[in-house]
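Technical appendix A lists one of the benchmark inputs used to test multi-chain prediction within the project. The record comprises two sequence entries:
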Amino acid sequence: MLIQILEQVLNGLLAGAYYLLIALGLSLIFSLGGLVNLAHGAFYALGAYFAVKLADTIGYAGAFIASPVLVALIGLVVERFLFRRFYREDPALGLLLTFGLAMVTEQALRWIFGAAPIPFSIPPALKGQVLIGDFIYSRYRLLMLAVAVVAVGGLWHLLKRTPFGRVVRAGVQNPDMVAALGISLAPYMAAVVGLAVGLAALAGVLMAAITGVHPAMGADILTASFVVVVIGGLGSFWGVVLAALIIGVVRGLTVYFFPPAAEASMYLLMLLVLLFRPRGLFGERIQRFE
Amino acid sequence: MNRSPVSRRRRQVLQGAGAATALGALGFPAIVRSQSDSIRFGHLTPRTGFLGPLGEYAVMGVNLAVDELNAAGGIMGRKIELIAEDSVNPQTASTKAERLLERDKVVVIIGEISSASGLAIAQVAQRNRTLFFNTGCNSDELRGKSCNRYMFHTEAANSMYVNAEGQALLRDGMVKGKKWYSLTADYAFGHDLLRVSKRFMAANGGTFAADELVPTDAADFSPYLLKIRNAKPDLVVSNLAGAQITNFMKQYMEFGLPFPVAGFGFDTAVAWGAGKGNVLGIWPLVWDSQVKSASAQRFTEAFTKKYGKPPENQAWGDYMSTKHVAQAMNELKTTDSTKIVEYLEKGAKFDIMKSREGYYRNWDHQLMQEMYTITFKPAAEVKDKWDLFTLSPPVPAANQSLEVLAPTREENACTMPA
């Protein structure tokens, strides 16, 4: 039994990585722009659909790279013409905008591709399983994990070790001071949105092979990703990472001990965390949101 | 300069009157005609959420039926006007059913897939004493404890799915002395199906290694797959629904577990959504375009022509129910629900696009019909994305009563409230 529980913990840690790619982007856009991006799941779905359609013509590897890039470009356009007007507005307006955008995107996908899931498989080269002792894992998911680790590591490096990241972090804490120093945040904000949206699309590309590709796929994953952000704490990079891993593990253990509560477990966890740490696990104090 | 304001005003009045007359002659009676002369059918089914993929086919089916009926003269010479909406969830389904019946005065509601929403619609329809044709809800309970006089079921009941699938499993020696591991959709349909499949298993000497509930929004099955692998069952049984089955099959293949798979609820669209190489198992099915009857081939041809893809079981259900309602109304020359109930309860026979005709059983209003099971072809034999499986001959066999699959009065008692 202990072995089986360990298995679930390990699998949960790996599963947490799927939420991570989406949750980090959500957290970034919110921290810097003050915008709760309810359309983030829609970009995830777009990533999956683009991958399926592109894979037919340019192959798996091409689709894998092209899809997130294309969706990131769409993200830049959306940022320029829509998001940008709402950073300093009442947060409710931003909510309305992105909620509407999510609905329009989902319905557009339904309109163009139909409500039924469209078939998509794991690339033949990545099919199969890996046995580590008695722990079985799919080769494809190991690749997903590797991509997630690289993406998270790259993002961390970008934010903490580059001049770009320093401006973004300063902007999160005090945009007025950044402006007073003569630095315009607008291009940084655009880059952050493009990056965040691209990561969401990357998650969509990766998940397309193992879950159904259907118009509502984004709405499903968005809620879980929000829970990750809330538990992790706003503005905290490692808080979000930790929360994603915890949620993966908690979900796995719930499936082991009491499966009907598998999806409810993360909300319960969120409730508990908020009761004792209203800012989330590692939430920073951000002046302008106080 | 001699145009006075007065004459201009008069001219405007005249123009206005002229326009009004023209409207009166053309537009207005047209509106009146559509109100009094058309017969309104209501259609509710989930178009979003995890059953949305099936609902889309339901909508295509009902639209095709209404088009064909109107082209053939409608009902008693009057056109059918279809009002179709997304039922979303039980609360919304109930509200929309009320609006269809009370505001739009529809003469029948057709549709639904979720057993929970189906129950909500059935209650509203019964209060309004109007027909409700259930085309996609499988729960036995809707035909038993929750049955009512105005509800008819073209969709097969869970018991019928279990018994059809069960015959195939008995034939393959997958029941007696075997350990099953079942995954069940955690809502009304799944609970009902689990109950019925347990009854079948116990009656035929099988046991459960485990039976587990899966939330309908679960997308990652890996924790379940690890548990199944450790339990080493003889058979993995799916009581899942809609998009869940797509995810389950894809990930089961991904993890490459060695145990055979069977299911007690199935829709072709979820297999199409998983695609070649991602599908496995033996599943029950209520209808498929591979059925050889003449009307099935006609329907398949018309559907494929209109939508560019073949119909599946859900399109069949909504198409056929609509045809049955219209046929009954035309034969009785009335849209009165109570009269139609009496007619159907007398055992009127209908073409159901299978080798034998069907009829609605009088005490629970379940359509008595043949069922099928499917097995997936090896990926190498698949011709196109619609061609994934082979269909069994119909069960029950031609010399058996159609009722052998259906629940008995003892198993699923129904007392129709007056």
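Residues 1-11, 16-35 of chain B have pLDDT under 50 and may be disordered. The longest strand of chain B covers residues 207-214. Comparable benchmark entries are summarised in Table A2.
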